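FAQ: What does the model actually see?

It sees only this:
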Amino acid sequence: MPLMIAALINMIYGVSILAVFLLPILLVAYRQSSSRDDAIGLMLGVAVGLLGGAIYGVYLNQPHLVMSSGPWPLIVSMIVGGVVGLVAAIYTRKWWKGPLATLLRRFRFSIKSLLILTTLFCLSLGMHMSSYWQQKHAVNLLSSQGFRVEYRFPRRNGRLTHLARLSRTIGPDHFLTPYSVDGHEDELTDEGLVGLKQFFHIERLNFQNTGVTTNVLSLLGSREHLVHFSMGRERAVPSDNGSGLTLLSECKDLYWLNLENVAIPDKGFSFLKSCPRLHTLQLYDMQMDDNDVAVILELSSVRVLGLGGTNITDKSVPHLSKATGLRQLFLNGTNITDAGAAQLQDALPDCRIFR
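And it is asked to produce this:
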């Protein structure tokens, strides 16, 4: 939450600074005009200049403008663009004044209306660029730490939409939000995931064989869209007590949960009761027992259940036998006997059991 508030304050600060410098530029444009049409043309020149400054600052090989720790470089680029646009409009008005006057006679604008529209346009552009900068900075931060951030490009009838093609051309952070973050290296830790605070539509988190703990769930800007969460490793992280898993109770759309050698929270798996859409639950090498199985199977939505490498015994067979919705059950490396497995197969004829 503090990082989100800081980002919002940073955006308001940047837009406010832009507005402070924008008003004098528009005032100069008004003073330099000799008629209503002239003033409108000069103000349009300022607006075009601001847009050009934003484009220059973001697209044309200016990474320092989007990677810096503050909004100043982008603000300066836009202000300079506005000044350049005004100067260009002043020196070229003999070419555009006539055609613009003809156009304005068809569409009646007052200077006051155009001033308001130009100001709103510039402020909305500044807010968009500030939001873009915040997300781009967070993505670059995650990428520099070794994490992979993915976007979902919208398609229609199997083809990329116009918005998707535009996003690929100018950068996805303008119109799309990341939906997936992956990491697969031992040295990756929670410290490198601070940028997750900027993401509010993450659907997929995958941290196999990393030093990331379950506390990563507390770093998300929002957990309500999470569909896939995977965390597995050969050996447990000592600092991870599994308490972060309780936050999965906020994930009403959770569909896939894969945990391997992860500590179990003090309250066990009770948090899963708040995940009504959970389809696949993989709990390999978890320190769980037969009592935990009873809690897990209260979820009637689970179709794929992996319990390989756990300490469950034939005492879990009566609980598992009632899970008629199961279609795949993995029991390899458990203490369930051949007789218990045979009993399970008789009780669950539609379930494929792996041992």
